[in-house]
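Consider the following assembly input.
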Amino acid sequence: MLLSVEEAQSTILSEIRPLNRIVERPLSQSYGEILARDIRADSDIPPFTNSAMDGYALRVDDIRDASSDEPVTLTVIGTVRAGHPGSQPVAKGQCYKIMTGGMVPDLADAVIPIESTKPGAEPNTVQILESATVGAFLRPAGEDIQKGSIVVKKGTRISPPAVGLLATAGAYVVPVREAPRVGIVSTGDELVGPDQPLTKGTIRNSNGYALQAAVYEAGGQPVLYPRAPDDPQAIRKLFHDAAKDCDLLISSGGVSVGDYDFVKPVIESLGHLTLWRVNLKPGKPVAFGKVVGIPVVGLPGNPVSALITFELFVRPAIRVMLGDEQWPRPTVRLPLAADIKSVEKRRQYLRARLVIENSHLAAWPHDRQGSAVQSSWESVDALVIVPENTGPYHAGDLLDTMLLSLHSVRPI
Ligand code: AMP
Ligand code: MG
């Protein structure tokens, strides 16, 4: 029996911990990072009771009977602007003109919006055309957030609104976890760099670069090692050196049952192999273990298998190392926008676009799902999960769908 994706994921994550390297980042560079500690407000928010409208700050008792037929005239003792508080309390029969955000003067207990007033007959007077209840159009101190309470929780990914909250709370430097260093080793005698000509029997090393970008996207710091030939000594040396410099190591290729697949024996010789082979298609031969004390994931060589196993097993590990408590991708049941003909013994993860069909979201699996078919990685928004030994499925059938991104969702 092959391990399920969930069993493999929990086995891998049971060996992964958030990194202890916490660094203080200037707030202006914190976007997208994971907050490493709870941040609390250093004052009430708002810090003082202020006006929600442009109008007049006054005493409710003075305008109990005000109406448009019988306005109440008050003396205006000054103007309060945002950032410029008034200098005296409001006495009986008085008011301040006040702008939105202005600090409500002492003894005023409501604001009447400008639209409910008229200029008074005398200079420095105003006619109030309606009554108010205590607190009308006031934003009391601490109404939003109380001093000392948590404004952004640890483990939160710092979004633009979170940056705003942190600024409001006076956090101009914030603790975040340093990005894990993720070593990438591509194995294969056939690989040449994208800058090199293709000679007979060679192909370009696409995995090294795709995985480097995937590590960046996952929030890690990629360290790209030179390609390793299919030679156990060479792979061993690269793994050994990389493990000393990285928090996590990933390799591509050489992890299956071929005569020149040496990644598993190398992991065993440098540490131990914890799992190998998972019930999924593409990506079955994925391996996990430890070398020189560092977790290592051996990804299969086929470009699609490499990225899907990265998504399922490496990205979660990177997110957990960063302290992200919301690492799982959302998975929802979505209708198919096209048929799925293949029935497989293993659980399939099909590359799909998300489309909007009659105002509803639907998943459109690409026609060509081969593990070496790179062209269908273009505009992949989601992976449709097809349970083993089930199918065929038809357009409209519901299947669990793992959402990767919403960037290219379009109506059809
Ligand atoms: P392997 O897992 O080493 O047996 O490789 C499986 C398939 O993936 C073979 O066709 C390899 O040539 C191909 N492959 C392996 N590594 C890479 C790579 N880094 N970039 C592109 N294709 C690769
Ligand atoms: Mg190979």
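The first strand starts at residue 22 and ends at 26. Ask yourself how this observation constrains the way the partners meet.
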